[in-house]
Every structure is written in C-alpha cells, then in structure tokens.
Amino acid sequence: MERRHRVVVVGAGFGGLAVVRSLADAPVDVVLVDGNNFHTFQPLLYQVATAGLDADDIAYPVRGIASKRGGSADVRLGHVVDIDLEGRRVVFDEGPALEYDQLVLAAGAVTATYGIPGVEEHAFGLKTLTDALALRAHVLRQFERVSVDGSQLETGALTVVIGGGGPTGVELAGGLMELFDKVLSKDFPTLDIRRARVVLVEPSDRLLGAFSPRLSETARRTLATRGVEVVLRVGVAGTDGKVVELTDGRRIPTGTVVWTAGVRASPLAACLAAQLGADALTQGGRVVVEADLSVPSHPEVFVIGDLAGATDPHGQLLPQVAPVAMQAGAHVAQMIRGSLEGRPTAAFRYRDKGSMATIGRHAAVAQLPGGIRLSGTPGWLAWLGLHLLMLVGFRNRVNVVVNWAWSYLTYDRASRLIVDPADKPDEHPHIPG
Ligand SMILES: Cc1cc2nc3c(=O)[nH]c(=O)nc-3n(C[C@H](O)[C@H](O)[C@H](O)COP(=O)(O)OP(=O)(O)OC[C@H]3O[C@@H](n4cnc5c(N)ncnc54)[C@H](O)[C@@H]3O)c2cc1C
Which of 120, 171, 178, 202 is labelled catalytic? Predict the structure, then answer.
C-alpha cells in the first residue's frame, strides 16, 4: 500500500512539539522522534535540582502528546545518529531507518565545556532531567556525609561552585541557597549551615549578560544579600572535582561543581556538515538555514530551535531560547502545509517577547517588550505565571501550583529524595564533549 506524505520531526522539545501541534489535522503522517519518551520543560530543571519540584512535574510523555493530536502523529522512541539527506532517511542507533518526505530537525543543544580541564569529567551539567536528579542526589548526599563526618567541612564538602552567570546559573544559585537556608538547616540542625556556600563564577563583568545592566545589578545584589558569593571578571580555569581553580589563581575547595556556562548545537549538526560541507555550520556550530528555515539545497529539510543558525534581519543569530524554537516550529508547520498546496515558503520573523530569570522567593528580573523592566515581587509573579502557562499538561500545572504553594507557605521542599544511585560525576560524566 502506498504510504501518505510523511513528515518526520526529530526532537520532542519546544520546537518539535510546536510543529506537531500545528500540523494536527494536516493531510500528512507525522512521526515524532525522540531519544526519550518524554518532553522536558528545561526552564524548571533547576527546581528539580534544588528539590522544589519532582521530575514528572516538568516532564510529559511524548505518546500522550501525540495521542492528543487525534492520532495524527506517531511516535518513534530512538536515538538518531545520522541523517541521510540523499536517501531521505533518518538513521537510528538501533532499528530500521525512517524514510521522510519532509524533515524537521529540532534536536536542541548539548552542554559545551570549551575544553576547560576537568569540567567534562567532574562537573554536573543542567541540561537534562538525569542531570537535575543527579545533582539533587549529590548535593543531598553531601549533607548526609558531612553529618557523619564533620571534618569534611574543612575540604569544602558543602561548597557548590557554579560556572556561568547566565539565567541557569543565577536561578540555580538562588534555588540552592534557599534550599540550604530554609530546608536543610532544619533537616540537619547540628550542622553549621553557614558553612554551606554557593559560589557563582562569571568571567564577564556582570550576571545575565542578555539583560539590561540595571537588572543584572539587581540580580547580583539580590543573590549577594541572600548569601551567594558572586565572583565576576574571573573564569573557571580547571577542576579536579575537589578544588576549582579560577583564572586569577584562586583555588576554591568544593564538593560540587556545576557547569552552566554554555551550550553547543546537537551533534546532528555535524552529521549534516559531513554531507553539506563545513560552511553548512555557523561559527558556533549551528546549522546554517535559509530565511524560511530550510537547509540550503534541501527545501524538504527544516532546522529549528537551538540547533538552527537562524538570524534576525540584521544577520544576528537568534538566541537559543524556548520562544524562538516554538515560533519557528509553528512557522515551519505552516510552510509544510503551504508546500502541500504548492505555495512558496516565506521568511521566518521572530517576535521577541522578552526574557526573565528568577532568583528566589519574591525576586526575579523580567525584561519585556516596550522597555518594560520588572524586578522584585512583580517580576517574580510574572515569572511564575508565564512558566505555568508554558508547562505542558494540565496535571503538571496542577502539581507545580500545589508544590509552589506548599513551599511558599511552609518553606518546605517536597522532593528532597536521593533517588540516583550513582551521583558522582567521576562515575557518570554528565557533560558530553
Ligand atoms: C536549565 C535550562 C534553563 C532554561 N531556561 C530557559 C528559560 O527560562 N526561558 C527560555 O526561553 N529558554 C530557556 N532555556 C532554553 C530552552 O530550553 C531551549 O532554547 C529550548 O529547549 C530549545 O528548544 P528545542 O526544541 O530547540 O530543543 P529542546 O527543547 O532541547 O529539545 C530537543 C529534543 O531533542 C531530543 N534529541 C536530541 N538529540 C536527539 C537525537 N540524536 N535523537 C533523538 N532525539 C534527540 C532531546 O531528547 C529533546 O527532547 C533553558 C535551557 C536550560 C538547559
């Protein structure tokens, strides 16, 4: 039997889901491919790492999402290792290849360590649910260790060093400090909680470089007031997991190193470059795309989200954030629908809706269109509302509201379970390449 026109979407992240949603009821077969059987809401990973939320509050089963599309999308659980552009096939590490008529690549990004010695081997990343659970288990276990052997305090067992003062580093630093101060201080009443340090290291001259200098300074001041040690204009030179060496020669004894300082496009970008040539990638390794988000000379292949080197009208690369991926997904779905009717494609235009980062209770910064800047409680409420709206699944929203309300009222964190049996980065390097 002849098969229908098939659109394969690789990646069930923000971009891939937007494509599938926007293709519901289109006269095509859609196959959504992901290496995990769930979608991860990455903006709240830091809350899983700091025991505020549990893993399944911020993840949603991919098959559940596909079945809600009235059976219009199929799912393939599998790790894509290559794209055969000439043969129009997606190749997996296991099982048969999948043929496509049109392909959307939305495989996102992975952590970039820039070759800094020891970071890949010893630091925790914060890009996946596994990363977040491993970090949570490790931090909680450090407290358990110190509670039976107080001498470990001298070697920095309760010190967390975070490399990278972007939104993820800032949110994680604020969340950890709150966890130590409000929750673990009660769980471990005999420990001197003031010895638990969070050090946030940022090589540039301010935190949150994409925000206005005023909001950056608000974030720095708020973190400092809450006890986070913010180190600016100094980078991480290397680590062996026990000491972090800074570029100014300082050495910080530590029990936990976290790396939030960079991302690079998924390795699938390199698969395309192997077939299309090195100039198929931008300087940062993203896939060069046409204005309509298709791959040059391959109008049947689109690339979106963190993997795409899409630019604004001034030629600047678009930021690797969720709204870019979602808007690009909706745009590409529209292009696919149009192509079925023989219509030409159109250029993608990103509408910037602003940026936000939270620091903790009653503290967040938000930079919105029209020059609107929010901080403190208004910024925090805006952050809470937006993240609830963006979460996938009604049940997840309810869970998150309940957990947030509980934490707000009781200063308790419901999810401080040690569930990862192997929490040492030495045993399980969390950061690829
Ligand atoms: C900790 C953290 C916090 C963030 N906070 C914010 C925020 O507050 N606001 C914001 O706008 N953005 C935030 N971002 C960025 C935002 O999450 C990304 O820009 C967005 O997820 C990109 O969407 P995407 O669809 O391109 O990729 P992703 O959402 O990363 O999805 C990629 C999908 O592809 C799958 N995949 C990857 N490789 C393969 C393969 N080879 N085979 C099969 N499947 C594969 C993955 O499993 C994943 O499901 C944050 C990111 C992180 C890591």
Answer: 171
